[in-house]
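Inverse folding, one chain.
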């Protein structure tokens, strides 16, 4: 992975490159930030840059792509590049699962998705969606074993630990020990999304690199270039995706998804307004069939509708991010989103997304949220939805 192929994040790239130029690469760094910002891609590009034998020879601020190290990095098969991911037993790995046993699927997933991968996407790939996966004690023992050998080919051995917040309680002491007394010429690049779940002792032993959202202009450009959509579509997607490229890809892949989302959202709001509990339960049963990733996208979409309604309500602006046929409903719906309830709506939708990410049953999440919406929607002085 070259830095130049990663969407946006120019400031972070420059900062990382500078550490190499000035020979002050910290032995343990934590790349922290929300989903779809390119944390993993940045960590791999950084690792490749560090070990490139011809760095900056052809391109300033990037690895060469042609030296023996880069060639192996491009396929993620460099013998001194190691990955640890949350794993669990599945149909083929019956006991003591380690990342090494899943490395083939990991490389495939990364290359298929240009290094933008999500936890749920990973669980689906290895068929462990419903189990509690984690970075376990077998993996931590393996880290120690692997790092006790000298590096094969490069100056540095690099250990990338993806989603370190999934570190199991029993495994933590082993990892902490090695972070504290790292073997010579070893770099740990840790990646995490949920700050509150990372144990504080890990945070105190690493240098924190905060990865910000991808800015809208860069996200729009990336959607147009990589996903062949027009500017109007890219702008609508960026509005919903909120700096998350994975989310933008999901929205575009679903193609008709946006119209489907919109119709579904309208139907849902009507059910909530009328508190039709049996129909709400049917709606919840249906929506869980779309899967967690799609459920999250739908909720993001819902938040974007609500945000736009609020703006329209208070500024009188027309909603430009929506298509003509959608505006009609929105103009009638907007009065229900106001000062009294907007913050609650936002909190409730965010909490629902948070729970869906953490394996709470999506059916329960949607049912709870529907009943909450039924109450919130009446907090506004306005006419009924027709
Ligand atoms: Zn190179």
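Residues assigned per position:
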């Amino acid at each position: 992975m070259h830095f130049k192929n990663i969407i946006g994040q120019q400031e972070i790239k420059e900062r990382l490159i500078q550490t190499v130029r000035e020979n002050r690469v910290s032995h343990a760094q934590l790349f922290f930030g929300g989903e779809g910002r390119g944390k993993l891609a940045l960590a791999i590009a950084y690792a490749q840059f560090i070990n490139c034998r011809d760095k900056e020879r052809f391109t300033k601020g990037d690895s060469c792509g042609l030296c023996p190290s880069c060639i192996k990095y491009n396929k993620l098969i460099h013998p001194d590049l190691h990955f640890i991911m949350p794993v669990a037993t599945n149909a083929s790995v019956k006991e003591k699962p380690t990342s090494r046993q899943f490395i083939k699927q990991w490389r495939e997933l990364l290359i298929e998705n240009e290094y933008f991968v999500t936890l749920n996407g990973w669980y689906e790939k290895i068929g462990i969606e419903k189990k509690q996966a984690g970075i376990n004690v077998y993996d931590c023992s393996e880290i120690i074993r692997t790092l006790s050998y000298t590096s094969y080919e490069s100056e540095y051995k690099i250990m990338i630990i993806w989603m370190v917040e999934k570190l199991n309680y029993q495994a933590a002491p082993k990892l902490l020990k090695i972070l504290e007394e790292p073997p010579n010429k070893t770099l740990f690049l840790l990646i995490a999304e949920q700050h509150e779940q990372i144990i504080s002792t890990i945070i105190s032993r690493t240098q924190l690199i905060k990865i910000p959202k991808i800015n809208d202009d860069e996200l729009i450009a990336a959607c147009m270039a990589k996903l062949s959509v027009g500017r109007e579509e890219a702008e609508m997607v960026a509005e919903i995706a909120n700096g998350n490229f994975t989310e933008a890809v999901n929205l575009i892949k679903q193609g008709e998804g946006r119209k489907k989302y919109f119709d579904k959202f309208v139907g849902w709001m009507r059910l909530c307004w009328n508190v039709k509990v049996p129909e709400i339960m049917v709606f919840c049963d249906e929506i869980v069939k779309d899967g967690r990733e799609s459920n999250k996208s739908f909720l993001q979409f819902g938040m974007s509708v609500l945000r736009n309604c609020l703006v329209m309500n208070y500024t009188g602006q027309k909603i430009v991010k929506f298509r003509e046929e959608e505006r009609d409903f929105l103009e009638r719906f907007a009065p229900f989103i106001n000062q009294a309830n907007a913050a609650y709506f936002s909190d409730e939708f965010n909490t629902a997304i948070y729970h869906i990410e953490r394996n709470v049953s999506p059916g329960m999440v949607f049912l709870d949220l529907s009943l909450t919406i039924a109450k919130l929607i009446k907090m506004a002085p306005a006419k009924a939805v027709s």
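The chain is about 50% helix and 5% strand. The CA atoms of residues 165 and 196 lie 8 Å apart.
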